[in-house]
Design goal:
466 residues; alpha/beta; Rossmann fold; Helicase, Ruva Protein, domain 3; Zinc Finger, Delta Prime, domain 3; five-stranded parallel β-sheet; three-stranded mixed β-sheet; 22 helices; 8 strands; 46% helix; globular
Length: 466
């Protein structure tokens, strides 16, 4: 089954959605026969740079474009893996050879900013004196990393993320074509989570479409994606800026016990602040992006309780003692309490640190397995990536993080994808959260856990949460 973002990838400039500022100019240049020798496509990931590059490469040669086709005169190069001077020297030698079937030999260099300085210098020589039959289309997410000498020799086109209305209409159209029954409120959540990226938004819709139900609702999407409710985010933000540490801690525990990841919650809070910026919220932006493993829960608690200095208590003349009482750093004392005495236990067990997986994996490579699943279906890979697992030498047991994940992975078609990706390994779907009990304990985390209500877990990598 082909992923939606591949199935609905545009094959002509007229089919490209949301990038009219680029497609119109390119279309006009094709009609006028004014073709440049170098183009630079700039923009965020998933906004259509590579798709438009492929379309333009086909149309400039008069080739019919089909997603899986392979024309010898259209050469795609990954700048991240072919970044050295030897790779560019080889390109310079081959570019002199005339095209085989088309008028132009087109080189598409993706992530061109990844090239080394020496490789850029070698490429520059070709761009300065290109053969008549050569066209270079370079794409980058990091425009500032591309040398000015390269930029000055290329026509630069800026791509943008899709706005809300454009993406909503696009997803609704695809849902209708695919027979996916989904509420507008549910689609709205997918649009917001996709962040304007066509690829990410379609991957999310793909994931949600695997649910077995008569109609996909907002509540089902929130549950399936493990997202916090908008009201929960707003309440948590208001509590954090008020300085009420107890309420903040309790709200955070309540949200995390629903299975929402701290990184996801932090991302939701960042998006809320950006959407409706308020002066008292802004200091949190310096801490929330740091919420990630290891000890993501502890970092989030620290960010909320100690990361906001936007509302200090003003010193009122005779009532000065009130300020220290309100700003009493209760959580700081708890979270940063140094270990009273060094415990010999970690030294007594010099076991090598395990890989960043929830349980011991034997010789099974979980990351390679997920990569193979992703090659078959992005949505199944995204769901499996949230799960823990155990490999006993012959059987891989996948433990879903929540009930909705178990439903998705247990579907016959999705289970077959897992089995095929396993390459002969027996695959079983275990109970929800079944592997969590095998995770190692950590004495320092047990103290932090008092604040988090037993929610903090050790990822096995050690280290201080702060």
């Amino acid at each position: 089954m082909k992923a939606l973002y591949r199935k609905y990838r545009p094959t002509s400039l007229g089919e490209v959605v949301g990038q009219e500022q680029v497609t119109k100019v390119l279309g006009d240049s094709l009609k006028a026969g004014k073709i440049g020798h170098a183009y630079l496509f700039v923009g965020p990931r998933g906004c259509g740079k590579t798709s438009v590059a492929r379309i333009f490469a086909h149309e400039v040669n008069g080739f019919k474009y089909e997603i899986e086709d392979d024309y010898v005169d259209i050469i795609e190069i990954d700048g991240a893996s072919n970044r050295g001077i030897d790779n560019i020297r080889e390109l310079r030698e081959k570019v002199m050879i005339a095209p085989t079937t088309g008028k132009y030999k087109v080189y598409i260099i993706d992530e061109v900013h990844m090239l080394t300085k020496e490789a850029f210098n070698a490429l520059l020589k070709t761009l300065e004196e290109p053969p008549e039959h050569a066209i270079f289309i370079m794409a980058t997410t990091d425009f500032y990393k591309v040398p000015v000498t390269i930029v000055s020799r290329a026509q630069t086109y800026t791509f943008k993320l899709a706005d809300y209305d454009t993406m909503l209409a696009h997803l609704k159209s695809i849902a209708e074509k695919e027979g996916i029954k989904i509420d507008d409120d549910a689609l709205s959540i997918i649009v917001k989570r996709g962040g304007g990226s066509f690829r990410d938004s379609l991957s999310l819709l793909d994931q949600i479409s695997t649910l077995s139900c008569d109609k996909i609702t907002k509540e089902l999407v929130v549950s399936a994606l493990g997202l916090p409710e908008d009201e929960s985010i707003k309440s948590l933000l208001q509590s954090a800026v008020s300085g009420d540490i107890t309420t903040t801690s309790n709200l955070l525990k309540d949200i995390l016990t629903t299975g929402i990841k701290p990184e996801t919650l932090a991302e939701g809070m960042i998006n809320e602040i950006i959407a409706e910026p308020r002066p008292e919220y802004l200091p949190l932006l310096s801490k929330l992006p740091e919420v990630r493993a290891p000890f993501a829960e502890a970092k989030l608690l620290t960010a909320l309780c100690l990361g906001n200095t936007a509302a200090p208590v003003a010193p009122v003349a005779p009532v000065a003692p009130v300020a220290p009482v309100v700003r009493k750093p209760v959580v700081l004392a708890t979270a940063k309490t140094p270990t009273p005495e060094p415990t010999p236990e970690p030294v007594a067990q010099p076991t090598p640190a395990p890989k960043p997986t929830p349980v011991a994996s034997g010789d099974f490579n979980w990351e390679d397995f997920l990569a193979r699943v992703k090659g078959m279906n992005d949505a199944v890979a995204m769901t499996a990536g949230k799960c823990s697992y155990n490999f006993d030498g012959s059987t891989l047991t996948i433990y879903p993080d929540k009930n909705i994940s178990k439903i998705i992975l247990s579907k016959d078609g999705n289970k077959k994808i897992l089995i095929d990706a396993g390459g002969g390994v027996k695959i079983t779907i275990g109970e929800v959260g079944g592997a969590s009990e095998t995770q190692p304990k950590d004495e320092l985390l047990s103290k932090i856990s008092d604040i988090m209500g037993g929610k903090v877990e050790n990822d096995g990598q050690g280290g201080n949460p702060f």
